[in-house]
Design brief:
The protein is of the alpha+beta class. It has helices spanning about 10-15, 50-55, 80-95, 120-139, and strands at about 25, 35-40, 40-45, 70-75, 100-105, 110-120. About 35% of the residues lie in helices and about 25% in strands. It has a 3-stranded antiparallel β-sheet, with no helix packed on it. Strands 4-6-5 form a 3-stranded antiparallel β-sheet. A hairpin with an 8-residue loop joins β1 and β2.
Length: about 140
């Protein structure tokens, strides 16, 4: 990194930013001096979108993808406490599906978004149906 910066630019702050854990593989960046690294299957990359994008091309042979994760969101005008028990029941009946609830607060609107994630669309559809059933019963 010292050779990347002009004389006097590799200051104390920049020196701290290049500290790396032991036994990492460095991910070089030709766009800026920012480095990334990986340890086994964990990749640490910069958060600035343009810098991140410039580094991704060099990782094509290092990152292997898995199955595509599908998702479906149901947004409701209610509070989590009103649906928590019923939502827990759906989750307990479908342990291989991820179900999350995320409250939202907008001007004069209060609600919860329920996100269902799985590799299998049929499982998402089943959970969605179960959730809609308990919502309809609550009305």
């Amino acid at each position: 990194m010292e050779t990347y910066y002009k004389s006097g630019e590799f200051n104390e702050g920049r020196q701290k930013m290049v500290w790396m854990p032991r036994n990492v593989n460095l991910i070089l960046n030709l766009t800026s001096g920012t480095l990334g690294f990986n340890v086994e299957n964990v990749f640490c990359l910069p958060g600035v979108p343009s810098i991140l994008k410039s580094m991704l091309g060099g990782l094509k042979n290092k990152i292997s993808g898995g199955e595509t994760i599908l998702s479906h969101t149901i947004s409701l005008r209610t509070v989590e406490s009103e649906i928590a028990k019923s939502l827990s029941n759906v989750q307990n009946d479908n342990l291989d599906v991820e179900i999350g609830s995320y409250p939202f607060f907008q001007v004069v609107k209060l609600g919860v978004s329920i996100v269902i994630r799985s590799e299998d669309q049929n499982k998402i559809d089943l959970c969605s149906s179960q959730i809609m059933n308990f919502i309809i019963k609550k009305k």
